[in-house]
Amino acid sequence: MRMHLSIAAGVLLLAGIGAAAAQDVVIAPEQETVIKEYVKKQPLASVKIPGVELNIGSALPDTVELHEVPDTTYSYVVVDNRTVVVDPGTRKIIKVIE
């Protein structure tokens, strides 16, 4: 019985990891190039967001103004001198450009 529970727990853990990975947003290389070039040409002033870590998947508060990247579905903002690419629908960070 214990072995069945261990196997079931392992399967559930792996399923959870797979589901989390499936939710990750992957930016196509050509779109990433468009974003980087646009951000370089359109620099923004850096903002501070106390209490928010710049990790992929972290959501930015509604008080942060997002700026559209034309010809993409993404937005960006500069936080603590780091350019952050954001999914505007969820406000989640999908890439931090160094």
From TrEMBL:
Signal peptide bounds: 1-22
Keyword list, A-Z: Signal
InterPro entries reported for this sequence: DUF1236 (IPR009642)
Protein name: DUF1236 domain-containing protein
Species: Mesorhizobium helmanticense
